[in-house]
Amino acid sequence: MYEHPSALGVAIALKPAAPVTLIRPQAAARAARFFVEKFPGRSLYAVKANPSPDLIRTLWDNGITHYDVASIVEVRLVAATLPDAKLCFMHPVKAEEAIAEAYHVHGVRTFSLDTIDELEKIMRATGNATDLELCVRIRVSSDYSELSLASKFGAELGETKELLMATRQAADALGICFHVGSQAMSPHAYTQAIERVRAAIVDAAVTVDIIDVGGGFPSVYPGMEPPALELYFDAIYRGFESLPVSYSSELWCEPGRALSAEYSSLIVRVERRRGDELYINDGAYGALFDAAHIGWRFPVTLLRTVDSKADMKGFSFYGPTCDDMDHMVGPFMLPADIDVGDYIEIGMLGAYGCAMRTGFNGFSSETVVTVDDEPMASLYRQDIAAPRRANVVNIGQ
Ligand SMILES: *Cc1c(COP(=O)(O)O)cnc(C)c1O
């Protein structure tokens, strides 16, 4: 892994023919410290957002001790990378073999569930263990989020009473968890979800030891500039404090995106220009799945030694594979004179970007470079709270 001061420096020094992943450990460290210091409870990192061992070690070094894992491969990865981390297996539908290995081999004690069947599976797989922390996932609205997680998992209000009572009987500690959907654009998402938690607790009349408000904390992208994270934390704390169980329960959250988005970006090269379409060397099967499939707009910057004087113009991207679906509509704002051979930095790909790469069609990115400059936008620094305007290349100063 090379080290360079900036994205521009990497483009100049390496003139890379394949995409280059840039990593910014200092940005992930800052995000981790922010959650550790300011979230009024415990923050678990949701590993699926970016399972890089280097990132996980950086988060650990900056105070994140608990990890939300969703598959046995993630359990093994974090257990091997951080032997002292606490793992919480928060996928509500697990293979019985995965539960057994997590419990017996890796010491996992925390599991989530949303049905009686899953509760019975966990009890069978752990030999009716008496030291389990079991979190019942309830269904909440995704109305305030850019990416819904509302239809797949979570017990409905009519089902929670029986499930909470049965889980209370089986568990050493009982939790209630939910997920408001990813990139929640308003703190109200959590306020509303905590109201559902209250209704479920009152209905079942159980004592609860953990309230886990899940992930969904936003990052910054063009056209998606969320309120300050402190406002989310305040809303969550107010909701939590007003629950009948707050005096005896712990508050948890499980950020994925917010802890990892600023960690990575990508340098790509323009291989062809056709009007306002740029053919670049990464795409839907690389780190740009969300840009292709759900129209996510990532910030972009032209990396040139001498800034372009041309006006900004909206471009769409084609990725390198031979597939029409390898298309990112954008619009991505870049100088109108951009052309073949130019390098572009695509920012904020640390969450659900670099983690989703495939090697389809022989296109992939093996080079990873650590850089010292700031990410293209940050939730954790007021002065760059909004995405850097494309081609204002104040990197490498
Ligand atoms: C994906 C996921 C997360 C992380 O969500 P973000 O929106 O990235 O914060 C947290 N918890 C669970 C159970 C998840 O599935």
Structure notes:
This protein is of the alpha/beta class and 397 residues long. Helices cover 28% and strands 23% of the residues. It has two domains: 2-23 and 261-384, Lyase, Ornithine Decarboxylase, Chain A, domain 1, CATH 2.40.37.10; 25-260, TIM Barrel, CATH 3.20.20.10. The strands form three sheets. Strands 1, 2, 13, 14, 15, 16, 17, 18 and 19 form a nine-stranded mixed β-sheet that branches. An eight-stranded parallel β-barrel has the order 3-4-5-6-7-9-11-12. Helix 2 packs across helix 3, helix 5 (96-104) crosses helix 6 and helix 8 (188-204) runs parallel beside helix 9. The protein is elongated. The two termini are 22 Å apart. Its EC number is 4.1.1.17. Residues 264-346 form the Orn/DAP/Arg decarboxylase 2 C-terminal domain. One of its GO terms (cellular component) is cytoplasm.
